[in-house]
Design a protein that fits this description.
Length: about 270
């Protein structure tokens, strides 16, 4: 009788789960609750099968070995949540359109950082808005994420049509190409726009020194995964990358209560650096 190994489910022990909880916290600052034990087991189980390992302890020993940097990154990718879509939380884009961009004098390049860009929908949404409203005036968008896997999708700018509901029809016509033939049911962000958005992996706990400074930082729907100590550390680092009078956007389910010295609340979830 043959056994389908793909159907076999590995069971993670409490001590093994604790190892991975410490691992992901130390590397990226994400605090996994006890409820995430099943998620860890299901997402990492495929890697145990890949290496024909018998336990999560064996897989943990593998990823912490200095010779397995690539596998360590795969584990981080699998344990981080990446969920986004075009023009998510429309009020933020309305604020950018009506309150921020009209007041920009256009002396220097307008720089925006999508700091948890996932597969790129947020960065391209911002790019559509900037191209439409700023035209030939200089602007740049930097998109980052801890996961190299999702950044590959972001760089391609190629999405299923089922994920494009939030894009205004005028922007669909102007900035997107509808897939045909073997690409039917998909959408490609046009080359002109893709070339104006740069994506690169960034760990929010350890920001590169050469990031430069930004007029807008989008840090939406990621702070909820960090404990207070890590939130304070991340916000402090981000503020060092913000121009005076620049803006920070966070998710509508998030708050900077008690950790936003130097930031003034403009509207809920939008802060200005003083």
């Amino acid at each position: 009788m043959s056994v389908n190994i793909a159907m076999f489910q590995f069971k993670i022990t409490d001590s093994e789960f604790s190892l991975f909880r410490t691992f992901i916290y130390d590397h990226v600052g994400i605090n996994l609750s006890d409820e995430k034990k099943t998620l860890v087991s299901s997402r990492l189980g495929k890697r145990l099968r890949h290496y024909s390992l018998g336990s999560f302890q064996e897989y943990f020993d593998l990823i912490v070995a200095s010779s397995h940097d690539g596998e360590r990154q795969i584990a981080i990718d699998l344990l981080t949540t990446n969920e986004t879509y075009f023009f998510r939380e429309p009020k933020h884009f309305e604020f950018l359109k009506k309150e921020v961009l009209p007041k920009w004098k256009g002396v220097n390049t307008f720089k925006v950082w999508s700091a948890a860009s996932s597969t790129g929908e947020e960065a391209y949404s911002i790019a559509m808005l900037l191209d439409d409203l700023l035209g030939h005036r200089p602007w740049e968008i930097f998109g980052s994420d801890i996961s190299r896997r999702v950044l590959k999708t972001a760089q391609q700018g190629h999405y299923l049509q089922a994920r494009i509901d939030g894009i205004p029809k005028a922007y669909l016509r102007k900035y997107c190409l509808k897939g045909v033939g073997e690409h039917e049911g998909t959408l490609l962000v046009n080359k002109k726009l893709r070339e104006r958005v740069v994506f690169s992996p960034v760990n929010l706990k350890k920001l590169p020194k050469d990031l430069g400074f930004f007029d807008i930082i989008f840090l939406r729907n990621v702070l909820i995964y960090f404990d207070m100590k890590t939130k304070i550390h991340i916000i402090k680092q981000l503020m060092e990358k913000m121009h005076p009078e620049s803006y920070l956007f966070i998710g509508h389910s998030e708050s900077l209560k008690g950790i936003h010295d130097g930031l003034v609340t403009v509207i809920p979830t939008v802060y200005r650096k003083t």
